[in-house]
Specification:
The protein has 295 residues and is of the alpha/beta class. 48% of the residues lie in helices and 21% in strands. The chain contains nine helices and nine strands.
Length: 295
């Protein structure tokens, strides 16, 4: 019986390998346009892109997914987008920077549980939701300080019944979603008062602050040049962001470590003066308002 099982498993494995081996690989850019394998791999080698792979019929679809995009809407586009946002999000002040935090689908607890392969802890899920919710008061102050307003938006809700206290969710049309986020299922976009826009999937809060208060002209030119003729190096502004984020993280951790050192000194003094020892723990958490779209 054991030999039969091994034989069947081997045959099944060979058939599966043969089927996948016979499938045609197709390479698509972020707009789902077909490109050649060389261009695909050059783009994928940078931090601007990641990839999504799907098997469809007799094809393996390899699609580029944007991690960052920066540019400027033309006058007509910007006016159309402003009108659409105002209609779908009610009162929006375009004299301020607009931050849109997007998720394609908001799922209720049971639906989210079914969609995950790994074990799902409902209590942990609710804890994270409440933590994110409570943090929004601090994030709103961060936005006001940077002449910005933030909005949480989505395309579809499936049995979603979480009632947030400190932020509202707004449903947008497929047309507006595609205009702002193309084929991406989540992300954050900053729209400045002059029509400049910056999309990202994840960004250090220091860089969010920096982007809200800087001129993007050189960044946009740099990114446009990169997209016209992609090379294996990152665009300049992406390299700066990565380096800036790393430097900020190191400074933040060093600062917290210094605090911990002061606490250790205090603890030693306390120990010398008292019979019992008091334990002091410092939890290090890097600030990340509007750093990602997971709410």
């Amino acid at each position: 019986m054991k030999k039969i099982t091994i034989f069947l498993f081997t045959i099944f494995s060979l058939l599966s390998f043969s089927q996948n081996n016979n499938k045609v690989e197709i390479y698509l850019d972020e707009n789902s346009n077909e490109i050649n394998e060389e261009e695909y791999k050059i783009k994928l080698a940078t931090s601007v892109y990641s990839e999504k792979t799907d098997i469809k019929n007799d094809n393996i679809l390899n699609r580029l997914s944007l991690n960052y995009e920066i540019g400027q809407f033309n006058t007509e586009e910007f006016q159309h987008i402003k009108n659409s946002i105002k209609n779908q999000l009610s009162q929006v002040d375009f004299e301020k920077n607009i931050i849109l935090i997007y998720q394609d689908t908001l799922k209720g607890v049971n639906d989210k549980n079914l969609s995950l392969e790994n074990s799902f802890d409902i209590s942990d899920y609710l804890k994270q939701k409440k933590k994110y919710d409570s943090k929004q008061n601090k994030c709103k102050r961060f936005a006001r300080k940077n002449n910005a307003e933030a909005y949480h938006i989505y395309s579809e809700a499936i049995n979603y019944d979480y009632n947030s206290k400190n932020y509202q969710t707004h449903q947008i049309t497929e047309s507006l979603k595609h205009k702002l986020f193309k084929n991406e299922s989540y992300g954050v976009i900053i729209i400045k008062t002059n029509g400049d826009y910056f999309y990202y999937k994840q960004l250090n809060q220091l860089q969010v602050d920096k982007m809200l208060n800087s001129d993007w002209s050189n960044y946009i030119m740099d990114f446009k040049s990169f997209k016209t003729k992609p090379v294996k190096e990152n665009p300049k502004f992406v390299t700066e962001m990565i380096n800036s984020a790393d430097a900020y993280t190191n400074r933040f951790l060093q600062r917290e470590a210094k605090k911990e050192s002061l606490f250790d000194n205090f603890q030693q003094q306390y120990k010398n003066q008292h019979v019992g020892q008091r334990t002091i723990t410092v939890k290090v958490e890097i600030p990340h308002c509007y750093s990602y779209a997971d709410y």
